[in-house]
Amino acid sequence: MSWTWFHKLASPPHAYRILGSLAPWFGWASLALILLATWWGLVKAPADYQQGDGFRILYVHAPSAWMSMFTYVVMAVAAGVGLIWRIKLAHAAAAACAPIGASFTFLALATGSIWGKPMWGTWWVWDARLTSELLLLFLYLGYMALRASFDDPQRADRASAVLALVGVINVPIIHYSVNWWSTLHQPASVTKFDKPSIDLAMLIPLFLMIAGFQLYFGWAVSRRLRGEILRRERNANWLKEAA
Amino acid sequence: MTAVRTPTLAAAKLVFQRDMTLAWRRWDEVAQPLIFYVVVTTMFPLATTPDLSALRVIGGGVVWVAALLASLLALEALFRADVEDGTTEQWVLSGQPLGYLLLAKVAAHWVLTGLPLVIMSPIVGTGLGLPTSVWGVLMSSLLLGTGTLSILGGIGAALTVGVRRGSVLLSLLVLPLAMPLLIFGSRAVSMQMDGDSPAGPLQLLAAIFFMALSLGPIAMSAAIRISVEN
Amino acid sequence: MDLQTFFEMGGYAGYVWTSYGLTALILLWNWWAARRFEAEAQLAARRRNELALERTA
Questions:
Q1: Which of A169, A226, B192, C37 is 20 to 30 Å from B178 by CA-CA measure?
Q2: C16/A53 touch (CB, cutoff 8 Å), yes or no
């Protein structure tokens, strides 16, 4: 098996060009999907029998919560690849992921809190999912703070990669411990979030929104990754034609 | 030519002894985390209520939070002097598995800060209304918890060794990772108080400790190499 | 269905519209920040190229 395609893909000029041509596709597709999902979720999907129209927050809360975790895993995998095989492009991808992931984590927290107000009666509840998201936000902030504290980009890359890997090993432990903690403190009161089954008509816009967010992530990572590549390759010859 | 290499265990022991000797010469610095620990736990009755039966509810948690913060405070400078004077560079070149030498250093640090905190905790806990029946659980949970935290903090200290103003950054990196320890540890104490068996959370703490013990040296040596090689 | 009831969201208007508005805001911020990040890097690269050309000329 030949690995030339891989090396070609991981070469900065090639990646720079490919990402540049992919980004608009991601961008327009995500815009279309997000608009469609918003319309479907706000207008077409039926109101919930318990939560009325308040449940429509689900269509922005759940996808952003999903993206916050998805992005962390992508970031950690990229960091691991960069650390083990010393691929600069992978480090650059990890760097590009962090601010996007942090912003989705913040969004998941904010929408969760807003949703909590009509459902629980308070703006903040120490519920397992919200608490996990909060800790995930701390992990993102720590990662970005560590990256920002180095002047040398290569050291920043490798040090933050170690942190991302330690973090991703910890994420399941944190998740489990927070769940355990929350079940002990909330004696089996069925919250309105716990739905045994959800109607298909309600699920379609959710999946559309998740797909839209994924494509949006693809767009944002492509743009940021191109920026990261340019910053890391400042002295390379290929830049003379590309820039 | 075959190089004669000191056995790893002997090398690690040398590192451990060296750190203990150095610490013995500036014992006042070693005492600081312990004083911090006592001061912080004194703040809670003053800030909330002197009523011991009310304090008892949060007592286990307060002891745990204070212990985590105290042992983290001292960690910042763990590797700094050795990296700056070139000692760690010698270790990298020595051919010894770097992770185990660093682990020996962390172990020395734990004996000097973690262990005194554990020994002190029943006294501090009594001040917060914890009954003598929880002493065993409190100390064993802290024993495992501070051990794990020292390793996690060792990774953080290794990552921030070349960074200006690293102490706040170190806390920012390590504290989120230490949340499970806090949850299981303080919960074990309150379960014992409520008459439940605290075996579950203690076993989980032990599991996390052994995981940190096996993976921590890898992460620490990777982090130190980044700081030394450039 | 008329527009009035749609905007009222069954009494949850404040919560639903704030959530969606916030989402739009975060998505727009990401869009702006990513574009700016790329554009700044491109500008810096172009400047370096021009400087290099001047030096060789």
A1: B192
A2: yes
